[in-house]
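Known limitations

Files may contain more than one protein. Parsers should not assume a single record per file. Below, a two-record file is shown to illustrate correct handling: read the sequence, read the token line, then continue until end of file.
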Amino acid sequence: MTAAHRVASSLLAFIFHPDVAFMLCYGAGFAATHQFGQGAAGQPLINLAAPLAAGFLIRNGRSLSPTDALRLAAVHLAVAAGLGVGLTDLAWTLFQNLATVACSVATFARLRRSGFISSEVRMAVAVTIAAATGALAGAPVGAAAGFGSGATLDAVLTCWAAAWVGSSLLLGVVLTRARSDQPLADEFDADEPKPALWEAPAAACLIATLILASVGQGRPEIVLAASCAMLWFALRLGLFATWLGAFCFSAALLAYMSEGLWPAFADAAEPMRAELMRYLALALLAGPSVLVAAHGHDQKRLRRILAYRAMHDGLTKLVNRVRFLEVLDAATAKAHSRGSRFALFLIDLDHFKSVNDGFGHQRGDALLVEVSARLRDSLRSTDVVARLGGDEFAVVAPLTNVDDGMKLAKRLVETVNQPFLIDGVSLLPSITLGGVLSPDSEGDAQRLILLADEALYAAKAAGRNCWRFSSVAGEAEPVQLWRPGVEGQLAFDTVYLD
């Protein structure tokens, strides 16, 4: 590694350190908030600093500690000095942000602990509640900063609406980032309709065009069409894209309104009342799309969970008999049509009943889980291992030659035949394996299972903890039997049993 690479690696490690990233997020959000400008009630048009800091803490399961508050204050002072923010405004803004962050994080943590956040829809609701609570804590501070002791109810409500809309949208973006269902049946994701590459830019362009048209023609009702276009994000592009689209949609409208480019709001007789209404309008326009996206996410996730449970064993998480037979049928058809080889192994865990009877079903289940993990770890990603029921397992493994099948069988038997300690009891599991090769062995999937079963029973008769192969081709040959720990050269011979 060169010196430049080492410096770059050290710099990245420093930037992505949790405490440093926390301060950088707040600093960037505070700078962007300042550039957005202020509303009629003296509050930021959209506050990005507080929700970024709150989202960071929530994602990392942290509360706002005194040390974190000091870090935020230091960053706040440094950025404010660079932007030329006055001392009075500086103190009010810092106090408002700290109150918003603390209340948002505490509210979300309370909802999480209570078990409220059990779905993406509830997560969206929790984000909204947390943002509203944080805004409620910071709104009086923001109104007092703009109007002093003469802060009016409209000023407080406007500050609250501004903080609520900005925080809920940005918190949603932060908290839905990289929320995936990787543990859930990736093989079933192929059945889900995937959006085309052009859909995201097309939807974004459509929304941008509608926003520009509504501003240019002074007709706010065109924004309603933009909110309908947001359903494109919700139904096709996912929850994160919907949150992000709603945030960009709202930020663009606020930017136009801050420059007086929207006559419907710029010419209002009561600017503060008009500003309050536009924040509530933004919330109503963005909210339905987010809820639709969250509901759609929950439905897709539920389908994946049900599909996973229908095709996997609940204890070992291996595929079950139904899924295994589908894989075997597909492999057999491919072998017959293209001549590609694969091995079918049927595997029995030796003396499992005595473990259940002697040490209890809990230890027996733990042994099944451990053996399943050892089998899975011994195979490639292209191989499929299944639990057929009880102590019975099966493997379908694509191969290029016969020797590979023999070596794989040897590796499986050796890997399982290692000590396993569970609750003070040392067990030495072993498996007996019967295999068959296709298309060397002609026949359909059921015929292959029968041949592998015959090989399995022959291996059991030979003393277990060993393997044998069978085929419908050729004639019977002397058997080279192998067991773990037996010295001597292993001869990779196919055993014919018919």
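...continuing to the second record:
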Amino acid sequence: MKLTIPILLLAVLSLSAVPVPKEKPGRSNAVKEQVLKNIEADYQAYSKIALQIWKYAEVGYKETQSSALLQQTLREQGFDVQVGVADIPTAFVATYGSGKPVIGLLAEYDALPGLSQQATPEKSPIAGQDAGHGCGHNLFGTASVAAGIELKKLLAASKIKGTVRVYGTPAEEGGSGKVYMVRAGLFKDVDAVVHWHPGSENRAMMNNYLANSSAKFRFHGISAHAAMAPERGRSALDAVEAMNHMVNLMREHIPQETRIHYVITSGGKAPNVVPDFAEVYYYVRHPKKDDVKQIFERVVKAAEGAALGTGTTMDYEVIGGTHDLLLNETLARALQRNLDQVGGVTYNAQETEFGRKIQTSLGFTVPPLTAAATVGKFETREGGGSTDVGDVSYVVPTVGMEAATWVPGTPAHSWQAVACDGTEIGTKGMAVAAKTMALTAIDLFTTPNLLQQAKTEFKNDVGSYTYKPLLGDRKPALNYRD
């Protein structure tokens, strides 16, 4: 990887909403332009890393090779890397610099099970592979590392002062990796955190994500011959089905913003054997963390009732739990300014043909391909998913963005997203994210008023709430994908 140390002096890009010290005109813009050129110069090296992680396609807490590759990249650039933090083998914290401010960058790298797909515009799973990067975390982690390295260059050249930290955060997809890292106090001295997420458009992230509690409910019965001695059996599968039925009836009597999903992960082995074990995996989501707690308790009661009614026993294991995402408008507006400067992505003829085939496969009306080149306006939206970034946002001012790594209209967690993530359509969007994150972090390092205003907003929003993880004191669920 080519390294170019910027030699221009830093200054501050003033924000209309935030009073900042006066600086000589053009100094900050010149430094930012150099950072943009540096990332562009190293684009091929970062693309190679992202596509290698795409090939690894390792699921939550199993991202051994993916994590190691990012760690190695950071070590080679002079970062001090601490591995196995928060009792998670694939989690790490990479640090460069000293003193304040401390600016954190989040890096994810876990894949999703059941989404194996080649980098082609037709559905075509990779033989012998189950998982795929349907949420673009191969791009996520790499862009954050790229931004971190650019900030390290500035620190090394004494153009900015402070500390940059890249947090390697495993198992975002249901494993709540960041929750354990927050619980371990790894963010307690951080002044602000910047993150991003792959998507189908370019915008500052101002949408609320849902709080989430998840658990695996396990029922234990008595096996017997299903035809010759059914009266001697007690079906664990009956208990799962009874629980699911009661929860489905409960949907009428819970807040309409609630989302409840489940999959039966074990339901017996043969129809003529009464199952003595069955398991169902549940997610409970709501915009407010307190409501999630209450609704989850009702789901537990349904499980207890199902066990009582079927003559079985039940235990459950909390797998994950995440807070809703606390938005910071001060930081989001600063990020939006930098995203406007960076701009979106454009596709060449080959990528355009690929993209059109992807869009055709979706089967519904989609925005034009040229929408990937535009930057969305600043606006607040309703969200439907969940993220463990929410827990980070409740302990430190946090800002995020979305970059167009999939052709417009592509949904996350789809084979189409996996296909785009394995091509330059994905890596071009990744470069947009790396550039925007680096520029936003520069503002945080060099504009004390911006950081102070963000902290004031954060304190007002958190109020008297004292952070407490929704997953309690359980240890990381390192085998939740098994």
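Parsers that stop after the first record will miss the second one. For reference, the second record is described as follows. The CA atoms of residues 134 and 413 lie 4 Å apart.
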